[in-house]
Amino acid sequence: MYEPLRDQIDELIRFLTPLPSSAVITTHMQPDADAIGSACALKGILRHLGVDARVINESVTPANLRFLPEADSIEVYESGVHDAVIRETSVVFCCDLNDLRRTGRMAGELAKHKARTVMIDHHVDPQPFYSASFHDINATSTAELMFRLAQESFPHVMDTPIATNIYAGVMSDTGSFRFPRVTAETHRMIAVLLEQGADPVDIYNRMNNTWSIGKTRLLGAVLSTMALHCDGQVCTMTVPYSMIEETGTSVEELDGMVHYTLSIAGVRCGVLIAERNPENEIKLSFRSKGDFTVNDIAKSFGGGGHIYAAGARTTMGTLEDVRSEVIDRITRKLAS
């Protein structure tokens, strides 16, 4: 193992020794498969170690991820119910997030407990809200870090439910194993997960082949908004909230659609710009390839993420105002 990771794991184990009696696990708003998979995998690991863990999230678990082991026990945050739980638990684990603001309404309560907070994450530029961490920006996913933690320190705990959650997280964050961070080592990890019972066919089908007719119609409508800019180097999708209403879907069902922008020849950067609600809160999803990075652009809108995949939310103006500003910032970066 890469030595800095070994050192981080050793430090984390020292932080958790003796093992806590209880733990709260949480992740970011609008969780994806890496967030849910890593949180549920960690709950499974902790259960094998005798730790009573609860997963509490700001957002409801997406329908296509509710089949994952432990996902049906995830609690949706309610201040009056869960603030006391957070105060009284031994350790708080923040998975797949590097900034407490990404936990939404939970951020205020979580911020009070830095001394016993652990961050497990692979995003760049983490904020200092924790006392211990397991962090690697070169990891394919946070789920991969759960695999490393289990294999290096608790190899006896790996079972089919944990392997299933880790596989789902890795598959999602690697774009089904096609993104740049995928290496031979990634596939060796996957081989271990398959040997432990993860079923790649079933997991893929449950995650990706369960769309409603409304979501399929939403995709068609979103694709029809594609527009090219900067001599074909930039592709945008613009989604008014009325499109969500007309298809009977939700904003969460837009997740992943931005990838279609990069399928057009010559496009280096793609952006999905969508109204989250009628009050003009705008969701931004950025994707890029080659040597063009987007995490800095997302950060300029108050968001963040990976260098080639990032996101943000803003209320800086109307849908068209934000679209214009996004194109302007990308244009200036391309010219620099």
For the biggest β-sheet, the strand order reads 3-2-1-4-5-6
Helix content: 25-40%
- The average pLDDT score comes to 95
Largest sheet: 6 strands, parallel
Radius of gyration: 20 Å
What report would you give on this structure?
The chain is an alpha/beta fold and 336 residues long. The chain contains 12 helices and 12 strands. It has helices at residues 3-15, 33-48, 79-88, 107-110, 142-153, 160-173, 184-195, 200-208, 213-223, 241-247, 295-300, 319-335; strands at 22-26, 52-57, 75-76, 91-95, 117-121, 132-135, 227-229, 234-239, 269-275, 282-288, 304-305, 309-314. The chain has a 6-stranded parallel sheet with strand order 3-2-1-4-5-6, sandwiched between helices. A 6-stranded mixed sheet has the order 7-8-9-10-12-11. Helix 4 (107-110) links the parallel strand 4 and strand 5 (117-121). Helix 5 (142-153) packs antiparallel against helix 6. The longest helix is centred in the last third of the chain and has 17 residues, at 319-335. It is globular. The model has no long low-confidence stretch (mean pLDDT 95).
